């Protein structure tokens, strides 16, 4: 069961990462951010694109427990996801994002993916 749960999260990160590399404007558009310079697009490609693909690769190795990394990798990515969700929670009290989409949708996506990874590590 753990490989399937980890694989689901890996697919999400891979999709996000590839979109971030190929079309950073499209990836970030729902958040109302404009990418008017090459430097801005490079940042999105690095943080959302490259990092997303790297996490997907790590999780792929974890799904097959290559080198016995399954539990540690799953917990590490789960902690990162909880950190992202926490940032959105802080924003709830400081910025008060409007509507459910995109901030709250991703808050719940991050928590659900973190939970899947924690369950896979048990």
Automatic annotation (TrEMBL):
Pfam families the record matches: DUF4345
Q: Which UniProt keywords apply?
A: Membrane, Transmembrane, Transmembrane helix
Top-level taxon: Bacteria
Matching InterPro entries: DUF4345
- Ranges annotated as spanning the membrane: 48-66, 73-91, 103-121
- Give the protein name, as stated in the record: DUF4345 domain-containing protein
């Amino acid at each position: 069961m753990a490989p399937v749960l980890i694989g689901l999260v890996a697919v999400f990160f891979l999709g996000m990462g590839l979109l971030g590399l190929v079309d950073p404007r499209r990836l970030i558009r729902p958040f109302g951010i404009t990418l008017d310079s090459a430097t801005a697009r490079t940042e999105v490609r690095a943080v959302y694109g490259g990092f997303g693909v790297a996490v997907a690769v790590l999780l792929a190795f974890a799904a097959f427990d290559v080198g016995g990394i399954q539990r540690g990798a799953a917990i590490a990515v789960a902690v990162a996801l909880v950190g992202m969700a926490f940032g959105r929670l802080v924003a709830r009290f400081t910025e008060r994002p409007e509507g459910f989409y995109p901030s709250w949708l991703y808050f719940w996506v991050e928590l659900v993916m973190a939970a899947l990874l924690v369950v896979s590590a048990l």
